[in-house]
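Researcher: Last one for today. Full complex below.
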Amino acid sequence: MKNFISLHGRTIALASVLVLLAGLLGYVALRAGPMAPVAVTVISVDSQAIKPALFGIGSVEARFTHKIGPTFAGRIRRVEVQSGDHVAKGQLLGEMDPVDLDDKIGAQEATLRRAEATLLAVEAQVQEVGARKAFAEIQTKRYEQLLVASSVSEEGAEAKRQELQIAQASLAAARANLDASRQELIRVRADRDGLVRQRANLRLISPVDGIVTRRDADPGTTVVAGQAVVEVVEPSSIWVSVRFDQQRAQGLSAKLPAQIVLRSRAGELLSGQVLRIEPHADAVTEEILAKVAFTQIPQVLPPIGELAEVTVALAAQKSMPVVPNASVQRVDGRLGVWVVEDGSLRFAPIKTGATDLDGRVQILQGLSGGEQIVVFSFKALDANSRIKVVDRIVGKSS
Amino acid sequence: MISLAGRDILHAWGKFVLTGIGLGLLIGVTLTMAGVYRGMVDDANVLLDNSGADLWVVQKDTQGPYAESSSLYDDTYRSILGISGVARVANVTYLTMQVSQIGDGKARDVRAMVVGIPPDGAGHPGQPGYLVEGRRLTRGHFEAVADIASGFALGDRIRIRRNEYTVVGLTRRMVSSGGDPMVFIPLKDAQEAQFLKDNDAIRAQRARTAQSPALNRPGVPGLLDAVIASQSTNTSVNAVLVQIEPGTDPEAVAEPIRRWKHLSVYTRMQMQSILIEKLIATAAKQIAMFLVILAIVSAAIVAFIIYTLTMGKIREIAVLKLIGTTNRTIAGMILQQAVALGLIGFVVGKVAATFWAPVFPKYVLLEPGDAVRGFVVVIVICVLASVLAIRAALKVDPAEAIGG
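Model: Here's the assembly. Have a good evening.
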């Protein structure tokens, strides 16, 4: 009898072990094998008015960059400013070495003074000749009267007339000489002025009120004509030159509001506005170029060339069914979503419209709203998949 | 009728069950090893599945982009798009590298395959087929979709080269042929990441260029800037993924691209053979070899266990013979016990393998087919082993029950 009970107990123990094993096998077969249901999350399609936006990156640039350098090749004598300096319009930034220009100007000054002296001499000559002529006129008049009274000979009167004619001719010559001397003075003065201008041209002057952004060459450096020595920008003219992927730039136009995030100031949103879309796109990188201006220039000026992220908000779309882009899949070459109907799956082909940056996609065709669709799935689905709806997939152990 | 085998098992059921469990763990290891092998092959296959491509267009005479490096200009896709039968194309870059997570207390490195894809949205080649959390890429820069095997979570910040990316979506089973998790980033960023050196190297390169008298001529302002700018751009991609129109023969689309565009094109079948027969061949053979040895060793151990179990009961069998039990009954008892042991072993092994498989760092694929094959093999081995034991049992002299 005792033996029987112990036999009975052993049977129960063995049976319980076997049942446990069978149970585990069943669990493994149903939960981990191909027969296991696929965990999915579902969402109900509803109508929303999405606000599409465009995202692009660009760099901070100045609208006007003044590259200031000499117009002739030469050597730099001095550069007065450092990059970062504020400069006023008309301020001297630097100067080129004039080489012999100052000596040439000295020579011209001397020539000018000589011409002025010559002019004075010629003027004196005119006066002298004028005096002689006046005397000759009086003499001639007196001899004419004396001739009428027969007090002088005809020959004496002729001689006085001739003296008058000579005096008149001398005066004309002296006057012509005076004119020539005046013209010469003008020429010499113009020559000197030209040299002075050339000399002034060697001074590098800021054309605007602005900030020196570059100092490319130092005193003693030889630069060619047109090479920049100093670069000046106007702080008020900075903007962001943004590049948008052509494929996603639909709806981009001027005057749209934009948000700018500078790489050095992540988290700080600066407001801006699309100023213009460039008529030329970048054919190599397949991007559209646009300029976005700051609504208010930042107090601390961002460095030229800093990377900026720009988000341009487009006009809100009208309300229509939207789905998360994670739910959209391509099955057998057709784009669509998995619709859950009575616990089973049906693939619904769709036509998609605009999308926003949060990943919502407009459905133009294929869904009417209210359907339950699969958003996330533990593995790829097909029409025969058994599904189990869960709240979230990540964080589950299976 | 009394089951002799059942009675005998009940007699020492603890010993029997423990032997079965021990056997089961051994079978579990064998099944797991088969799973490791299947997992390797599956990693290669999902790489192809996940790319969503029907054709891979790569640099001429290379077997890229997975098995060899391949480099194409990124505008090559334009001419491919014009080939008849091509439905969709996408540029793609692949780069296996260390991706570091940043953030307080989260800093760590993950080896990952960084995939650059155009953020075209769902259904385009190169796009992950399904997600488990988050959303797909929508911005053209600085977003990432990562595989959960990387351990990243939504909202994590990761650094690839010099840029930081926000993880916006998570995928599952998106791995390289080596099992590294994939991290999808926008193509333009990936091109930069693939090319971009660290800042020190860039500065050194600039200085090197500036020192070259040919590239930094005194009389040509702007030449140096132009040369440096041309040195720091990258317009290459590793492959162009092509989806063809439904019902089109892939080879018919591939041939004109090969012939007229002077590029190499691989169909799904060819790419699969490159991956499985070339890329992972040695590693897979290594595992397969080990699997074969493990299976033989397991079979031997199972046979020995059953043989020893029977030999341990040789005196009882002699008694049975003495009291006139037929040979058939004795043979039946041994066979039934062996098969029962095999059954317990298989169940324990299967359960154990299933529970520990997810813990493995790389994917372990336990195929039902392998389980069925394993089951059949276990039963066959048990039967064969019991034949040995039965022969020994039937030869026993009934006199031994009384003697020694």
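The longest strand of chain B covers residues 86-102. Chain B touches chain A through 55 residues (CB under 8 Å).
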